[in-house]
Amino acid sequence: MLQTLPPRAPIPTRLRTQLESFLVLRRNPLELWGEPAYEQEILPGKFLGRDQLMVNAPEGIRHILVTNAENYRRNPATKRVLQPVLGAGLFLAEGEAWRHQRRTIAPALAPRTMPILAHHVVAASAAREAELETLLHRPIELLPHLQHLALAIAGQSMFSLEMSGFGPELRRMLLGYGMKYALPGILDLMLPENIPSFVDRGRAAFRTDWLAFLDRLIAVRAAQTPSGDARDLFDLLSAARDPETGAGFDHAQLRDEVSTMILAGHETTAVTLFWSCYLAALYPDQQDRLAAETAPVDLSAPHAAASLARLPAVRAHVDEALRLYPPAFLIVRQAQQADEILGHKVAAGTTITISPWVLHRHRARWRAPDEFDPDRFMPGATPPERYAYMPFGAGPRICVGAQFALTEATLVLARLLARFRVELAGSGAVIPRGIVTTQPDRPVRFILTPRRP
Hints:
Elements: H1 18-27, E1 42-47, E2 50-55, H2 58-67, E3 72-73, H3 76-86, H4 95-105, H5 114-133, E4 140-141, H6 142-159, H7 167-180, H8 186-190, H9 198-222, H10 233-239, H11 251-282, H12 284-294, H13 304-307, H14 312-324, E5 331-335, E6 339-341, E7 344-346, E8 351-354, H15 356-359, H16 402-419, E9 420-424, E10 432-435, E11 437-440, E12 445-450
Parallel strand pairs: 2-8
Antiparallel strand pairs: 1-2, 3-5, 4-12, 5-8, 6-7, 9-12, 10-11
């Protein structure tokens, strides 16, 4: 066990006013929760005058996300922020539309497809490693490189395309959206879903441009010469059929699924890799342990998928990074009808919050929850309590790409640490900040040195 505690967002020492809480939500949602949130099972309260219930008890989480999931749907603010980017794709779909999409998409991301996708991961990773070779022994910001790498992997695995022609425009559009529209404002939280605000008009204009961009991307891929075998996720999704109805995706549906997979896949994986590298640099002995594990493993494209079984320590390191810094730090639902959760009456319209950030550090769920200890996830260790560890959600709506995300993060981290020693350039804690995903609060510079030729 390692004694230095990894940095975390500060915990408030007093109860905030509603205005203060709203301002914190805008600045850094990870600072919202005081000590009771990390100790109690259920916390009732109010936010902006509306009933709210935070649930940390696994049996309560199961009730919300599994047993009575139809009663707990995404709240209007979440839809306002994400619909312009994700459309009616799997992440935001509800009811029968969601069930159709889930049934159709799931086979494309089944374990049998991992060798195809792992090949794309290694191909894109090798290209980025070669670029990093030119930046040795000097301070560099690693996160942008990891974002570009994750985007390249998304392009390769989705379209078998190099993203050099599309990546800069995609990143520019997403960064612009994140700065202007991604943080919920007071109108997002207060207005009924069917009443747009002036911010929603800007979001609608963005969506028009975004759809045009996706249409161009899909057109380039569709113009490629067909192949007899599935080459990527685009082939798999284009051929996918609902096993119950036989229906596939029309163009608009396919476009929204492509958007969901590119966005949900590349940004969350990039920050997972960032925090994994940060923790490796913070704990050099752990980094050496991972490098020693990767040394005898063939991480080339033909053997990438098979090599995963030989990387238990790397996978455990990624799992612990996901525990301490879950990319999706907050799950919000709204009760459609009155209900009861573990003896607590829930009125229709109540906002329900489940925070993986809090849950992964809960005093009742974890031993030494603020410590970095990847051995928690090594083979033979007692597995976490169900619904206490959920970096990809839980229940029927668990992230359909979770297996691919873990494959990608494990392979990329293994290749990076096999090739480079990763050290922090400068001192000072890096505070995590919730901006759609769990990001560092400032640019972080690393120094890479060659570990082996």
